[in-house]
Amino acid sequence: MDPRHPAARPDRDAAPVPAATFTTPVTADLLRGALDTERTGRGLLPHRLPARARAQNTDEQLAMAESQPSGVRLAFRSAATVVELDTLPVKRIYPGAPPRPDGVYDLLVDGRPAGRASAAGGDTVTVDLSTGRTEHRSGRPATLRFTGLPGRTKGVEIWLPHDETTELLALRTDAPVSPAPDRGRRVWAHHGSSISQGSGAAGPTGTWPALAAALGGVELVNLGLGGGALLDPFTARALRDAPADLISLKLGINLVNADLMRLRAFGPAVHGFLDTVREGHPATPLLVVSPLLCPLHEDTPGPTAFDTAALATGRLRFRAAGDPAERAAGKLTLTVVREELERIVRERAAGDPHLHYLDGRALYGEADAAELPLPDALHPDAAAHRRIGERFARLAFGPGGPFGGGADGTA
Q1: Virtual CA dihedral for 216, 211, 104, 50, nearest 10 degrees?
Q2: Angle at the Cα of 256 (from 226 to 265), degrees rounded to 5?
Q3: What is the pLDDT of residues 339-355, one digit of tens each?
Q4: What is the 3-state secondary structure (H, E, C) of 288-332?
Q5: Confidence (pTM)
Q6: Strand runs (DSSP E) across 110-259, as ranges?
Q7: Pair 246, 187: CB distance under 8 Å
Q8: What is the DSSP letter of 19?
Q9: What is the distance between the alpha carbons of residues 230 and 56, in angstroms, rounded to a whole number?
Q10: Tens digits of per-residue pLDDT, 33-54?
Q11: Checking DSSP bridges between strand 166-173 and strand 83-93, what pairing results, if any?
């Protein structure tokens, strides 16, 4: 729990904190931002990809990313002044790399920050960076406790960690709880890479999509998948079948990171992905966003590799392991990806007036890289997330933008 926040540290001279005597089962109707839930032997596990997509995936990295509940939040109404949440987090350990901080849970009351907490303990997954092998060990649950909330009936949201898998075991309060009603806002489904998932953000409400959604007055479904924006057909089908009023796709960086395909395959794969999304959303505003500026891979292909010299000093940094000369053989760079995405969208938009393109460098470009450089050469920090979110809100949700509408999110 963050001791700087009043809800996390009650005044010692204040009246005793009431006991949380009402227990509410954690069920799917209390969640927003998840496409699926799984009832485990211990609790409820939110998923950001549906079961059918998960069944077709064999990539452990993607399986981990989709189970990390970026953008997923508990949402309910209550007059409670005390809220307790029992969770079972999953901590990742990378031997040789700096320890990862505990995941952050953000509490909002009527849309405003009202508390922040982290859960210690839980299960651990140790990842060998050289082989990719993992070792799982079971741990103990943790209890988050928020106190000092206003006693009136109010909307309460607990945003789950954007970068840490967590099972939800129990919700306790000192007053009854009911699911939050539908606010009538448009639903924005966004798909992207680890930057969209929130890597480098200070907390779940500080990821750039969460910030943009708040400014745009929309309900977020975040399908930012760390290392997993790879044009997988099952992800396209998940977007096709997801309820959404607005859709954005931030494509390219992971394809370069993984050195997954050549230019010959990239164009048709993008067309196929868009075709699938359009099967379920034929006239939904659809925004294709090219990669942010990343000097590492602007003109150098992947794969992306760990900087072993930095790891030896306890720092996590990345390097480009490709050769610029390999572009002639069709290897992808961010420059090539942007050119191809712009061409594809321009040509398709002639028959699809609801399809739009945004150059990612309008969100984070050369001047931003000079002022707010990527700390690990790949991911933005908290300040850059805020800047990206604010710019996306202005360019996408603002007047004349592809998602433009009223401040309350209505068209």
Answers
A1: 60
A2: 110
A3: 999 999 999 999 999 99
A4: EECCCCCHHHCCCCCCEEECHHHHHCCCCCEEECCCHHHHHHCEC
A5: 0.92
A6: 112-118, 123-127, 134-137, 142-146, 154-159, 166-173, 177-179, 187-192, 219-224, 246-250
A7: yes
A8: P
A9: 14
A10: 999 999 998 999 999 999 999 9
A11: antiparallel
